[in-house]
Amino acid sequence: MGRDTADPVGADILMSQGAKDTLTVDQTTQRGWPLVVACLAALCLSGWIYLGLMVADMVPVMDMTEAGPGMGLFNLFNDFAGLPAEARAALAALCLPTSVATFGMPGAEWGLVDLGLVFWMWLMMALAMMLPSAVPMLRAYFVKAGSQIDTPVLSTLLVAVGYLVIWVAYSVVATLAQWGLSKLGLLGGMMAPVHLALTASVLVVAGLYQFTPAKQACLYRCWYPRWLFLNLRHEEKETGAAFREGLMQGMACLGCCWAMMTLMFAVGLMNVLWVAALGVLMALEKTFPSRWFSRALGILLLAWGGALSYLLMVQS
To answer: Does residue 84 lie within any of the structural domains?
Structure first.
């Protein structure tokens, strides 16, 4: 008399094999993540090296106080330390060449080469500031992709490329904005604002944006990524799905951080101290879910911009 009974030994073997396969996938995934981190770190480091070389070439011949708040610290390494403002201006006029810009800096009259240099500077700032803040998102994608596709490392790097394409586009817009502001005389030769009005305006706009629904929606998307293409069925996924995933996440990040990034127009475009500070603030804002942190930043920016606006009214 036959009986339809399950074989407990066979079931145990199948369960054990499944657990072993899962463990193998997890181990492969974990081995691949350091390679992704190494690629991201190399790109970020290249941005910082480029910006550092620009500053290093400026220090010997320029009054670094003109580069924005805090940059006067670099005058400790040149002849401007301890001099009054009038003496620094006179010395800068004598030392700074009028026809040749320092490394990476545009000349007095912008041409195509100068536009290219400024674009490259903005791109290096994007690598230094925005790529580190994308690491939690890329890690989440890598873990999700590791259980669904055979090449999680390549797929994650394609997401990073798509993400950076959005910031390449931002760099183009920022370059044109800098060119326009320079033509209007609102930015000086050190790429810092000449008038407090520009600084105050940028601070107020950035502060107000922190409270807008667009900012909050994009910030939420940065906290909790939604994988539009990774969640498709296998047969629906295209070769460029990971790249398009990066584009979507990059647009969310742009919507979240464009105003904070644009603060560089207020504090000086070659102010590497603020490049670091803003990069840290944006990374914290995008990594740790907290509405209060975002709003606190907005309040600080509005207070700073309001104080400068009041100072302008008093001076006028």
So the answer is: no
